[in-house]
Amino acid sequence: MKIVCLLKFTPDVDSFEYDYTNHVLNRENSKMIINPDDACALGFALNLKKKHPDIEIEVVTMAPLSVKSMMEDVIRRRVNRGTILSDSAFGGSDTLTTSRIIAAYLKQTEYDVILTGTQTLDGDTAHVPSQLAEFLGIGQLSAITKIDEESFINGMPEVEVDTENYVDVYRIPFPAVLSVRKESKYRLPFVRYADLEMDVSDRLQIVDHKMLGIDPLSAGLKGSATKVVKTYMQTYEQKDKIIVHNDKDGIETVYRFLKDNGYLK
Amino acid sequence: MQATVQSGVALQDLEDELRKIGYTTGHSPQSKPVAQYGGLVATRSIGQFSTLYGGIEDMVVGLECVFPTGQICRIKNVPRRAGGPDIRHIAIGNEGTLCYITEVTIKIFKYFPENNLFYGYLIKDVATGIKVLREVFVNGYRPSVARVYSEEDARQHFYHFHDGKCVLIFMAEGAKPIADACGQGIEEAVEKFKDGIIKKVDSALIEDWFNHLNWSQKDIDDEVQEMINNDSHSGYTTEISANWETIPKIYDNVINRIRKEFKQADDLVILGGHSSHSYLNGTNMYFVYQYNINCEPEDEFRMYHHPLQTIIVEETLKLGGSMCHHHGIGKYRNQWTKEEHGSAYYMLEKLKETFDPNGVMSFGNIFYQEEGAHFQK
Ligand SMILES: Cc1cc2nc3c(=O)[nH]c(=O)nc-3n(C[C@H](O)[C@H](O)[C@H](O)COP(=O)(O)OP(=O)(O)OC[C@H]3O[C@@H](n4cnc5c(N)ncnc54)[C@H](O)[C@@H]3O)c2cc1C
Fold first, then answer.
1. Which domain holds residue A204?
2. What share of residues in chain A are helix, strand, coil (percent, to 5)?
3. Domains in chain B, ordered, with CATH?
4. A60 falls within a domain
5. B128 pLDDT exceeds 70?
6. Which residue of B has its CA nearest to A187?
7. Ligand 1 atom at shortest distance from the alpha carbon of B48
């Protein structure tokens, strides 16, 4: 079985610090991480591969070449192959164009199933997986919180989908795009100590527009229909810190706070 | 005044019994609720009031132990003697590598909690705190608690008042005139170095901190569960000792080297330390480090703890300090035992050869074993 995992490296928004005086986001300490939903999807695949070593996993990302070392670390987690779709012509692509570029690559590639996250920390649109499935002409499910391993191995996975009020159970035949949420808690294994310096260059490929047969004018900003009109910073007010003691008054203060803010009914 | 206990008696149990009749063991390691006398003696443990009562080695009067041959030895209980080398020290701190301790007799002390005095200060830096500690001890005062915390370490212990600064704390205890005199000595030392003192802290806050120091079995279990649930680690420590002048140098060298050399430096959440046990000629430094674990649990030791510990041990030994003020050597520091002891390692090695010729006692503790190396590095 071959699983393709789509993965995006995003800024770790939790490490941004908000400057209350100037109302700007301080990104100095921010680092890039694997988008949490995507990490769970890859975590599921790698944990399954532990039990079924013949499973082949290819990780695909569309990104600038600066992600190369992070991608090498992904491959060191016992991934068979890594592919970076990278070209200066791809920069600024909207979700539709991104999906088209990824689909162009996947049309040239063999796979049984494509695992992705449901949405990304930075974009948050959840567009790419469904658009990709549409371009490939296969089925897709989002917001998956559980995949049954046995039926997955048999090519007709039973998955649980969180629809906020309910958990729906679906069966979907391969090939399909399965989009996982981080609430699934599939844990992405780390690179093992012995593999930290492993040379994985022969397992990493860089694919550009020529290899995909894509006209550069139909990609990137020029090839994208979505135009950003304006972006602005949301402003927040700094809250005063209240320190209470473990006594009657303290408990009352915490209780009031939770009640007034709707955390307690 | 002394008490005799079997090695399995929990320190907490003895302390509780003694308190009922107005006495104390004076021994209060943070592991008090879980540790037993055999382990306390075998690891050369030290408590939080060591500056007044001493470490366990100052408390043990005599003991009984069994050697691997089956030989039982009783070291008698006398106030002092000059009967050749002090053989108590073959058992104290042996970490189970030479003999098994079965019974211990320890000194006990009168307890005067009503006279306790607490002092706390926010200070400019660790070096200022060390200067004040030194002043207090060389003037002959014996506070039961005397500690200096770096900014980072203070943040985790004194979140309600540290204000981002280093913290200096003292506790004086004993018969009233002694406690009062000690308090005065502390105030004079603080006054002498007032340029480095930012402000005095309400002593009620220090007393409150002091009353919540110890770890119960539940605290330990909760901590372990928290690590399992969140793939996190709540912190490691490596504690060392050295002379007064050397300690601040080691502290700075260690912190600078870790910041520069440690590959996982970005994962560190806390890196700092405190001095908590002082002597006439020097003090200890208890390095603390907490980090986010970005590796498999099996690799954590080699990726995080060992490289950090290596820097601390190397910097300490380089300047003539000891890599193991307390917590013993165990299995994870035995690669440096020879360097720690230098030419005196000969004596340690001969003890092992003589008392445990087949190497069956606490394999890997203190004495390096090749089989354990792949867990360490
Ligand atoms: C939360 C926590 C806080 C701590 N705080 C302190 C502190 O403030 N100060 C301090 O000094 N230490 C501290 N320690 C470590 C401390 O050394 C041990 O907790 C204690 O001294 C060991 O006693 P134990 O009964 O738990 O021994 P164990 O952990 O059971 O044994 C420790 C070692 O001693 C040997 N040993 C045990 N019993 C005997 C015996 N009867 N004869 C020969 N060898 C024996 C064993 O081989 C073993 O290697 C702390 C540990 C924890 C977990």
1. 2-218
2. 35, 25, 45
3. 2-110 (3.30.465.10), 113-211 (3.30.70.3450), 217-318 (3.30.300.330)
4. yes
5. yes
6. B231
7. 8
Q: Is residue A92 in a domain?
A: yes
How far is it, in rounded angstroms, from Cα A119 to Cα A70? 20
pLDDT in tens, B295-333: 888 898 889 999 999 999 999 999 999 999 999 999 999
Q: pTM here?
A: 0.83
Could you tell which of B6, B25, B27, B31 is best to mutate to test the pocket of ligand 1, judged by most ligand atoms within 8 Å of the CB?
Answer: B31
Interface pTM, i.e. ipTM: 0.72
Q: Which residue has the tokens 């890594």?
A: A82
Residues B117/B179, Cβ–Cβ less than 8 Å: yes
- CATH at residue A43: 3.40.50.620
Within chain A, strands assigned E span 2-6, 9-11, 17-19, 24-26, 32-34, 56-62, 81-85, 113-117, 139-147, 158-162, 167-171, 176-180, 204-207
**AA identity, residue B215:** W
C-alpha B9 – ligand 1 centre gap (Å) = 13
Of residues B266, B296, B302, nearest to A189 (C-beta): B296
List, in sequence order, every residue forming a beta bridge with A25; answer none if it has no partner.
Answer: A18
pLDDT in tens, B53-85: 999 999 999 999 999 999 999 999 999 999 999
In one letter, which amino acid is A170?
Answer: Y
